[in-house]
């Protein structure tokens, strides 16, 4: 479903991604770990199409389409979803209106009619219960005044509502209390199925005890330097990243 080949990207003239290769199959969950500044969020941004990044080399294919040729909006309509590390507040736009507009954009793109008000409310209730999202937050302005954890939980609610094929979760666990971490992880697990793929960016192995990945990749200085299974995350938690640099004879970033 997603193939990344030799992806290089820069921001403000600085090379950040230096040859990423990654293959994500349908229904798979991949975790991306790596030291601060290694390029994890940059990879998420490039996949979502943030315009301050310039792709200088490489290819990204999503379900047979050249993702890099598509606008950020069309990537979202095609089924790529990014849960932000720092979700933005949009005062004056209610959470529900935002979701209805986004959902209808996707439906129109797929040639489907706009969702009926009644069906939308039914879907909202169903998904709100599925991911255990506080109903009171749904009518408020999008993320305005939400606590850090509420914003992260809202990202998962949006994910449930929009039902993308590929969800990229950028440090969704940061800022969550212990209960919220479990709730958010349960929400993600309920959304996992044979058709949907997840890329989970995290610093902590703890999250991967809840959302068990099929693969764990280590991103270092703009490249994936090691791939393993969930045991690799455990090893990183115990040993940090320095041993890997030594093992692979890598220079400092
Ligand atoms: N707009 C920008 N201008 C200049 N440098 C940038 C910009 N955005 C990102 N960078 C740099 O790109 C590098 C990679 O950043 P990125 O946020 O992708 O790392 P990360 O692996 O997600 O880090 P963290 O774990 O700290 O979130 C960093 O050195 C960062 O300073």
TrEMBL record:
It holds the Pfam family ABC_tran. Residues 2-246 form the ABC transporter domain. The keyword NAD does not apply. Keywords: ATP-binding, Nucleotide-binding. Belongs to the ABC transporter superfamily. Ycf16 family. This is Fe-S cluster assembly ATPase SufC. The gene is sufC.
């Amino acid at each position: 479903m997603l193939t990344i080949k030799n992806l290089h990207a820069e921001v403000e003239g600085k090379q950040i991604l230096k040859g990423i290769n990654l293959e994500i199959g349908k229904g798979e969950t991949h975790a991306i770990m790596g030291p601060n500044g290694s390029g994890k969020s940059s990879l998420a941004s490039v996949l979502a199409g943030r315009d301050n990044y310039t792709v200088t080399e490489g290819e990204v294919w999503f379900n047979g389409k050249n993702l890099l040729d598509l606008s950020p909006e069309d990537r979202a309509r095609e089924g790529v979803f990014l849960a932000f590390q720092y979700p933005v507040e949009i005062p004056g736009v209610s959470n529900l209106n935002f979701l209805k507009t986004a959902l209808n954009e996707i439906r129109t793109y797929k040639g489907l009619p706009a969702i009926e008000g009644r069906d939308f409310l039914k879907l909202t209730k169903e998904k709100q219960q599925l991911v255990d999202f506080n109903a009171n937050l749904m009518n408020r302005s999008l993320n305005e005044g939400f606590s850090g954890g509420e914003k992260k939980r809202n990202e998962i609610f949006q994910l449930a509502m929009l039902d993308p094929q590929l969800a990229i979760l950028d440090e969704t666990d940061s800022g969550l209390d212990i209960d919220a971490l479990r709730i958010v992880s349960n929400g993600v697990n309920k959304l996992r199925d044979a058709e949907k793929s997840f890329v989970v960016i995290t610093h902590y192995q703890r999250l991967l005890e809840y959302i068990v990945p099929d693969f764990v990749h280590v991103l270092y200085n703009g490249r994936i330097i090691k791939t393993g299974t969930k045991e690799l995350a455990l090893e990183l938690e115990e040993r940090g990243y320095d041993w890997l640099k030594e093992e692979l004879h890598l220079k400092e970033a």
